[in-house]
Design goal:
By secondary structure, the protein is of the alpha+beta class. It has 16 helices and 19 strands. Strands 8, 9, 10, 11, 12 and 13 form a six-stranded antiparallel beta sheet that branches. A three-stranded antiparallel beta sheet has the order 7-4-14. A two-stranded antiparallel sheet has the order 1-2. The longest helix is centred in the C-terminal third of the chain and has 31 residues.
């Protein structure tokens, strides 16, 4: 998919001056994530008069770093509490596993999105409405289906950025319709009455975009009548020091490319030492023979043990007849260099200096363990704010669609808490004890504590907290 063609189309239609230069960097980050950045990982070696193409051994650490951040920030223990029972049931079902989120396989897809957002610098969750009725451009609450599309930075074109937040955007993706590969362009722009969503399909032919018909049931344009965006943007919580004006974020390893190179150079040297480090045995030609076809036969080919020396030398010199050479594998030097490069990489990517350790026999106390990961804890809290905000925004968009398109009795403005479990960083009991202290110190209200730890709605938590306080007063009075 040629993103530059879409950008040129949007510039012609809006008179804007969008640039596609930043997407070259995104393609480079994606190549590192996939494990092969050709300008670095492919090289040539001379073998006589010929040049032989070689590929460097790689650990693929760019993907590993993104995987680890995704596992830390959004995992199977992530949960949400919604302060309105019907809204909660609509989102996640009565058992917490169903509803719209269950139908969309939301948590698995969202975890994948976090990985790709940390790879490409930006990710988007875009609400998709199917089978809805649109009249005069407005959505009617007569039913339909709600879906969520998960897109990485190469599919996102910011149109309006205010205070660093993407307010309007175009989302581009490839789709297969009737065996034909098409480009789907969806724009979300603000009008006088709220967001306007426009849908278009194109076929790329000879470097040009040819319009195609929309699938049946898809409206060309619809007004939401609301300034609530039907998309949410996720970016790693690091400042873009490449190009702040695009509205797109920065890959988590954008400033650690040299560290990725260092890791792969060390790993490549390690693997090549093993590849070239096999035993070498040199035989004097007098110990070999040739068959009728001229093929050389060594003693081991025929299990020969008796030889006759026909040379002029006196005696048998073992070094002259058979010489064994065992190249050094340099295991200690290679592992030391590789470990140092991994330490630099984890430090540059915000994981701390000891996140990737392959040393054996070292036992750390819990205090040492947490101390070594203090930087990771701080950065996880920072990135966690961005993840919670993005998830909450798309949940409100889903609730809006449930009310406006499906006619459900749900509330987009109800309290929503996205709870990211960080048991890897802070064990669950310690986290609960911390929240108890915050309640005692007046930093957290009792009903908020109940919502987080008992899974109650806001109304249920407020009622239970009030009853508990009243019972406590009665006990004190009696």
């Amino acid at each position: 998919m040629n993103i530059q063609l879409i950008i040129e189309l949007l510039n012609r239609e809006t008179g804007g001056n969008l640039s596609g230069a930043y997407y070259a960097r995104i393609r480079e980050w994606e190549a590192w994530w996939r494990g092969c950045y050709r300008p670095f990982h492919q090289f040539r070696e001379r073998s006589g008069p010929q040049l032989i193409r070689r590929e460097m051994y790689t650990l693929g650490m760019a993907k590993k770093v993104c995987e680890d951040w995704a596992s830390l920030l959004l995992n199977e223990q992530t949960r949400i509490t919604v302060g309105h029972r019907k809204s909660s049931d609509f989102l996640q079902g009565k058992d917490g596993q169903g509803g719209v989120l269950g139908q969309c396989d939301f948590w698995h897809q969202a975890n994948t999105l976090v990985e790709k957002a940390f790879m490409s610098g930006t990710g988007a969750m875009v609400l998709r409405l199917g089978g809805v009725e649109v009249r005069d451009g407005r959505i009617l609450p007569h039913g339909g289906q709600i879906g969520v599309e998960f897109l990485s930075a190469r599919n996102i074109i910011p149109l309006t950025v205010q205070q660093g937040k993407i307010r309007e955007a175009a989302f581009v993706s490839e789709t297969l319709e009737g065996g034909e590969r098409l480009i789907y362009l969806e724009t979300h722009t603000l009008g006088r009455n709220g967001y306007v969503i426009r849908n278009r399909y194109f076929k790329e032919e000879n470097g040009e975009l040819k319009p195609r018909s929309l699938p049946q049931g898809m409206a060309r344009e619809m007004e939401t009548g609301s300034d609530l965006p039907l998309f949410s943007i996720l970016r790693p919580a690091i400042v873009n020091n490449v190009d702040e004006g695009t509205g797109l974020g920065l890959s988590i390893f954008a400033n650690a490319i040299d560290c990725l190179k260092g890791v792969d150079l060390c790993f490549n040297n390690f693997c090549r030492d093993f590849k070239l480090g096999g035993k070498k045995v040199f035989l004097n030609q007098s110990l070999t023979a040739r068959d009728a076809d001229g093929t050389m036969i060594t003693p081991d080919d025929v299990a020969q043990q008796l030889f006759m020396n026909m040379g002029d030398n006196d005696g048998l010199d073992a070094q002259r007849l058979i010489h064994e050479f065992n190249p050094s594998l340099r295991v200690e030097e290679n592992t030391g260099g590789l470990q140092a490069q991994l330490d630099y990489l984890s430090f540059k990517c915000g994981l701390g200096t000891r996140h990737y350790q392959f040393e054996r026999g070292e036992i750390l106390t819990a205090t040492q363990y947490m101390g070594d990961r203090q930087e990771l804890v701080q950065n996880a809290a920072k990135h966690g704010l961005a993840v919670r905000r993005a998830v909450e925004e798309i949940l409100r968009a889903i609730l809006w669609a449930g009310r406006e398109a499906l006619g459900m009795d749900v509330r987009p403005d109800c309290p929503i808490a996205v709870i990211l479990e960080d048991g890897y960083l802070i064990d669950r009991e310690s986290q609960r004890e911390r929240d108890r202290e915050e309640v005692q110190n007046g930093l957290m209200r009792r009903w908020e504590y109940r919502m987080r730890w008992y899974g109650e709605t806001e109304a249920e938590a407020r009622k239970a907290a009030l009853e508990a306080a009243q019972d406590l007063q009665k006990s004190a009075a009696g």
